[in-house]
């Protein structure tokens, strides 16, 4: 079994599902002939034809509307927004229609669509190409928001997202598209949605994160172990619905929590986790919850981009502070 990158795992999952389910269609700007801006759909049009892998106009509003329409008529569309910052013209269709089908029809209709979104910074791209905008969509009832952090989880979670009867926003951390490889069996086995993954057991501090920041958080846990601090690392993976029980159980054990995310600090999804910990785990906490996040600015271009993102040193420092408290 060959090791593959995260982007190759996405392609592999799409090909598996299209081969085994004729209702799955892929659409978006340049996804067909060119195989997508990041080549996530490379070869799919040649294999499955232009009626199932559709090149659309450069019009995100149309892409979203067409996706919702296909989902309402028996298809399972997987659309691509070329970049995270291109999602905003899609919001009307996603929020006002896709997310409300089940509620609006009292469960008689659903909207089985996936919107794949290359997400986040770290690739030295210009404005609108490096945004961490997940919290906009975690606030919308009726949407699942999923973000894989490895090739194995990208494959399994995308299969689960396509099979889900409700709409899924599938954020793909583009900084780690080709950063490392894993062996990923192409067996069609989905991973569970709505579940956090405990990637490392620990007893002194809980580190909660998702997406590209999982890599830095695991590296921080290694550094903390050298200092005698045992860190438990949780990959949230499905932001909404949130598997808060896994986080709560971990904090009950460690008494401390650091939340790491790339998005701006104010009203980022980490604030929701911190709020719930204050509501439900107050008597387990022996130190205040800390957040290591981006800044309340747009991500700076090029030279300061990596300074904006959470780093191993920042995560280590935050964990040291909470470990020293109490």
Automatic annotation (TrEMBL):
Keyword Oxidoreductase: yes
Gene Ontology MF annotations: oxidoreductase activity
Keyword Ion transport: no
Matches recorded under Pfam families: Transket_pyr, Transketolase_C
SMART domains for the chain: Transket_pyr (SM00861)
Taxonomy, superkingdom: Bacteria
Keywords from the UniProt entry: Oxidoreductase, Thiamine pyrophosphate
Residue intervals of the Transketolase-like pyrimidine-binding domain: 4-179
Cofactor(s) for this UniProt protein: thiamine diphosphate
Primary role: The branched-chain alpha-keto dehydrogenase complex catalyzes the overall conversion of alpha-keto acids to acyl-CoA and CO(2). It contains multiple copies of three enzymatic components: branched-chain alpha-keto acid decarboxylase (E1), lipoamide acyltransferase (E2) and lipoamide dehydrogenase (E3).
Protein name: 2-oxoisovalerate dehydrogenase subunit beta
Species in which this protein is naturally found: Arenimonas metalli CF5-1
Taxonomy of the source species: Bacteria, Pseudomonadati, Pseudomonadota, Gammaproteobacteria, Lysobacterales
């Amino acid at each position: 079994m060959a090791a593959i990158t995260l982007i190759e795992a996405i392609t592999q999952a799409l090909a598996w599902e299209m081969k085994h389910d004729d209702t799955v269609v892929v659409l978006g700007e340049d996804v067909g002939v060119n195989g997508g801006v990041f080549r996530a759909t490379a070869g799919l049009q040649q294999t499955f034809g232009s009626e199932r892998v559709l090149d659309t106009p450069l019009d995100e509003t149309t892409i979203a509307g067409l996706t919702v329409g296909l989902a309402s008529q028996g298809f399972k569309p997987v659309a691509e927004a070329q970049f995270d910052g291109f999602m905003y013209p899609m919001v009307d269709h996603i929020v006002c229609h896709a997310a409300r089908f089940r509620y609006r029809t009292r469960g008689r209709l659903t909207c089985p669509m996936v919107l794949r979104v290359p997400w986040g910074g770290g690739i030295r791209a210009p404005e609108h190409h490096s945004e961490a905008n997940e919290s906009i969509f975690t606030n919308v009832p009726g949407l699942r928001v999923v973000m894989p952090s490895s090739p194995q989880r990208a494959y399994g979670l995308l299969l689960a997202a396509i099979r889900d009867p409700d709409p899924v926003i599938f954020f793909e951390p583009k900084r780690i598209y080709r950063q490392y490889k894993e062996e990923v069996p192409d067996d069609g086995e989905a991973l569970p949605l709505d579940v956090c993954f405990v990637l490392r057991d620990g007893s002194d501090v809980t580190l909660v994160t998702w997406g590209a920041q999982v890599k830095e958080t695991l590296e921080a846990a290694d550094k903390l172990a050298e200092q005698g601090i045992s860190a438990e690392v949780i990959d949230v993976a499905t932001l909404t619905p949130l598997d808060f029980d896994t986080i709560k159980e971990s904090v009950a054990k460690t008494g401390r929590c650091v939340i790491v995310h790339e998005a701006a600090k104010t009203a980022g999804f980490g604030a929701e986790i911190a709020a719930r910990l204050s509501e439900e785990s107050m008597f387990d906490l022996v130190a205040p919850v800390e957040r290591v996040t981006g800044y309340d600015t747009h991500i700076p271009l090029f030279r300061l981009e990596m300074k904006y993102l959470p780093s191993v040193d920042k995560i280590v420092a935050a964990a040291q502070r909470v470990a020293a408290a109490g």
